[in-house]
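If your schedule permits, I should be very grateful for your opinion on a structural question. The matter concerns a single protein, recorded as an amino acid sequence and a row of backbone structure tokens. Could you please explain, in whatever detail you think fit, how the structure tokens follow from the sequence? I set the record out below, with my sincere thanks for your time.

——
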Amino acid sequence: MPVQVIDNQRLYRQIADQLRALIDSGEFPPGSRLPAERELAKMLGVSRASVREAMIALEVIGLVDVRVGNGVLVCEPPVKAPTNEPVMTQVTRNQWKELDPELAIEVDFSAEIPPFALLQARRLIEPEAAALAAQNVSDQELVLIHQAFERNCQDNREGSHTHPGDRLFHIRIAQASGNPAYSLMIQHLLGHRYGSMFQRLQAHYTSDDMPLRSEHEHRLILQALENRDPEAARQAMADHLDEVIRIFSRGTA
């Protein structure tokens, strides 16, 4: 199969572009399956996580159907296949407001962040924001964080697919850090979390028990904040995000 080794940034886009060209050329006709993640990663010289992101991006534009545990099926071309457009659609600011007005901010959603890069950035930033929040949080901010946690629990009981309480919990912790840069960055990152690619990744790879496990991890973070224990808050947040990354990365190691 004619492929080129990938060695630049934005790996998933380049992988997706190569696969899209092969699909368009008939190398992989409708109804056929693309090579497995492991095989493609070896051929292209990239990680399986980058290949997974590329598959999700192709699914967003309707070229493939990702069937976890059963390969990636090439679909019939869309009636009006997009040309010269990004491989992912974006949540506009107005759509973001409709999801939850309290979380709407002025950000540029046209510069998409691939899901695993997004999670890695959050893993670096949010534990430190949580540690600062444990030092600086006011009683009123603790009330707001607790309300967001309760909303998260309610979302889980109602089977929410957008999880506004989860996002609000993380945003309010960042706001309580006393560092407005942390607050701005985390709001921006969580906006991208509900772009099309991240939503597809969640739909395919979220385990059945993930919402309740996440709720338990959030409770540990909240307890550390209530105890005003920076080290415990840092560790609880790091453990939570490590678990999220582990779940979405299953099978890519």
In short: The CA atoms of residues 1 and 214 lie 42 Å apart. The radius of gyration is 20 Å. The first strand starts at residue 64 and ends at 66. The beta strands are 64-66, 72-74.
